[in-house]
Amino acid sequence: MDLICFAIKQKNRGGFGMPDKIFIIVSLILIILVIRIKNIGIAFRSINTLIHELSHAFMALLTGGQVSEIKLNDNASGSCTTKSKGKFKVFLVSSAGYIFSALFSYLLFYSLGKSWNHYFFYFFLFISIIALIFWIRNLYGILWTLIFASLNLALILIPNTIINFSNHILMVFGFIIAIDNFFATLLLCYISITQPKKAGDATNIAKTTKIPAIFWALIFLSISILIGYKSYLIFLPLF
What pLDDT, in 10s, does the model give residues 223-237? Predict the structure, then answer.
């Protein structure tokens, strides 16, 4: 109800508007379809890849580790090379990607209708610049991150765009991250069964904990579903 009341107040003031039911449904369907298109989808999915890999990087730094390199690949995959001392720190760094991506999508949805949500564009610009300066070195990663940073800078430099469409843009970003993260955890479960030694983060945690990769893949999938449900509750009042 708070979300609806805030949207009504903003509309009466002539401020930014909330996405309506039709826009939400159409956007959700289009995003699900578009991100599966080979070339176009990769460009959109790289938003989640950036958040995922930076989650590893920032967790490594928070736990006293080091970050050597981040790669954003032209197939929407990515990697973050870190160094951490201690099994628990390795566990935290390896766990951060899928969990923080899911949580970040929820935060974007939670911000809808809030007066401070336009600061996310500054956040996206900031993390893009940091990633470019310190970690991203491969060609696709550099080009894509430059474009993403430029997009957010353009949104910042056009105040009316932020005021009128911040909710719509951030909702789309949130859907892209949440949906791609969900499909990524599904794929991780499959790889954990068929090729458990090549299951990325799940394999790294399995090596540290001696618990099979499929267990951790299912944990990531469960968290993605749980946070997806929590996100659904945010939108429920609008329907």
Answer: 999 999 999 999 888
Angle, CA of 33, 170 and 130, to the nearest 5°: 105
Which amino acid is residue 187, in one-letter code? L
Nearest to 109 by CA among 11, 183, 21, 3: 3
pLDDT digits (tens, 9 = 90+) for 154-185: 999 987 666 678 899 999 999 999 999 999 99
Q: Give the angle subtended at the CA of 103 by the CAs of 219 and 73, to the nearest 5°.
A: 80
Residue 22 corresponds to which amino acid? I
Query: How far is 66 from 68, CA to CA, in rounded Å?
Result: 6
Beta-carbon count within 10 A of 133 CB = 8
With contact defined as beta carbons under 8 Å apart, do 72 and 140 qualify? yes
Taking CA atoms, 37 is separated from 41, 44, 127, 223, in Å, by 5, 10, 27, 26
Q: Tell me which amino acid residue 72 is.
A: L
Q: Which segments of 14-138 does DSSP mark as H helices, in order?
A: 21-34, 38-62, 87-110, 119-134
